[in-house]
Amino acid sequence: MRTSLLSVSRSCQAVHRLPQNTFVSPTSSLSRHQRIAVLRNSSSHSCEADRSFYVTTPIFYVNASPHLGHLYSAVTADCAHRYKLLRGFNSKFTTGTDEHGLKIQQAAEAAGKDPLTFCTDVSERFKHLFDSCNISYTDYIRTSEQRHRQAVTHFWTVLCDKGLIYKGSYEGWYSTQDESFLTALQVENALDSSGKEIKVSLESGHKVEWMKEENYMFRLSAFRSQLLDWLRGNPRAVQPEPFHHAVLQWLQEDLPDLSVSRQRSRLRWGIPVPGDAEQTIYVWLDALVNYLTVAGYPDKHDRWWNVAHHVVGKDILKFHAIYWPAFLLGAGLPLPQAIYVHSHWTVGGKKMSKSVGNVVDPLERSQMFTTDGVRYFLLRQGVPESDCDYTDNKVIKLLNAELADSLGGLLNRCTAPALNPAQVYPSFCPRSFPREREGRAVVEDYDMLDAVRSLPAVVERHYESMHAYKALEAIAACVRKTNGFVQRHAPWKLDRRDGEDQRWLDTIIHVSLECLRTYGTLLQPIVPGISNKLLSRLGVRPGERSWADVNFLPRYQGTDCPFEGRALGEDCGVLFTRLESPNLDKQKPKKTKTEISK
């Protein structure tokens, strides 16, 4: 989606064409129960809906190939989707491409292609990236699809029938590159390449031109108080908290009405306004409705739309947290349960730009660092509240430290024939590691057990708020504790001929494998490939990998462990290939195995 939306400023003159008495108050046409449900986002759903979850990414504009930020949005939503599946939810996850607009129309003409062919080519690049990076979407929506056209047309008609759309004339600065009108305060003087003075957008730097046209307007100004009620009554409607405050701050000022159409003579590549062949529905209204299209609007959307969650970049927050809810209120539909906002990725501290030459190709990086490697890095380093910086060296250092050395090294130690010659999940000895703390375990070992036992609840809390980086911090800290546990007791030094030593060795390995099983289960939404490899090596079957299956170290609690005595799975090599050199153009990653300390 684009980063700005057509809006009517105080300086723009809108000529109202509808008599005043045709306007229907946004909520007056709803029953009291419906008004409460809309404004409070009532969750009085069916039992089926209570176990349903619907998460969306923005749909991505096909003006350029995908970049790292697009993948970050997709991986964030994918993590939420996979997590909900682990919890036993029915989950729907959608992504796709935003394909209408003047910029696309002009780009297609310049390429000598019809708009649909042009859009298909770029859309396929996004789809290929997401497929390559294991994005498990259940629906891939394109705004050029017929199902979407039908949904948008119906949505427009509903708003129109309620008196929320009127015809007027619009005058102001317009940026074709940004597909948006701008106020006088949003432009500045600049010089083009020939030295000629021009006006450009303050936000994007793109050239703008003065334009006047007749189009349709949406009565956004009528919804300010209801949007404030919604946000104040739902402090977690927009997350993280700083973005919630930002939206409230925007709403302290008057909301101008929005232009929601363009003249057909200017914009042919788009959905026509119902009943007016001279106008095209503006691309932002068109694009936002995609979330409803996938939910089954207008006939079968209730189940999914009642549990909708959006993942968006901070640059399109205003459109998702103000304009979109206003459209939904006008149409009498529930508002999203939550809007999760993330910040941007920079490179070397600078914004990614083609002119600077620092745009990161996510597909190329996924081939360099593996799909799971890139997924892990983005979710481990991505902090939603602030911009994050990308360098190849950061990726290499993080993945080597946490996936290759810490997690991979722990798995290799505990499954290597030198320590586990029988290649089984060994037995736990309660006398060696008693709950009364009288055996061979020390205080630090009990602290580790407490940390790992509480880890699922910690990770759950962070997954629920889409703070994956905090979940990964907690997991990484526990992995370090487990490595410390093994290193502290040096099982390779124990005498296997001594029965007590053998029982203690088996207990050390059993506890470590239980820790690994927990980490592998909790990491599935982040790195599904690595998690599958780890759990398969431990002999954990596909049906034993849900959130409810974690049940860490039951033998310590005096109950049976279903894995005790079970043969380990096949050794498929290192868990993660160590990356040896930042100069990836000249050197390929070299496979190594962490040696067992002797």
TrEMBL record:
Residues 53-414 form the Methionyl/Leucyl tRNA synthetase domain. It catalyses: tRNA(Met) + L-methionine + ATP = L-methionyl-tRNA(Met) + AMP + diphosphate. GO terms for biological process: methionyl-tRNA aminoacylation. Residues 447-548 form the Methionyl-tRNA synthetase anticodon-binding domain. Its main location: mitochondrion. The keyword Aminoacyl-tRNA synthetase applies. Pfam families: Anticodon_3, tRNA-synt_1g. It comes from the Eukaryota. Keywords: Aminoacyl-tRNA synthetase, ATP-binding, Ligase, Mitochondrion, Nucleotide-binding, Protein biosynthesis, Transit peptide. PANTHER family: METHIONINE--TRNA LIGASE, MITOCHONDRIAL (PTHR43326:SF1), METHIONYL-TRNA SYNTHETASE (PTHR43326). NCBIfam families: metG. This is Methionine--tRNA ligase, mitochondrial. It comes from Liparis tanakae (Tanaka's snailfish).
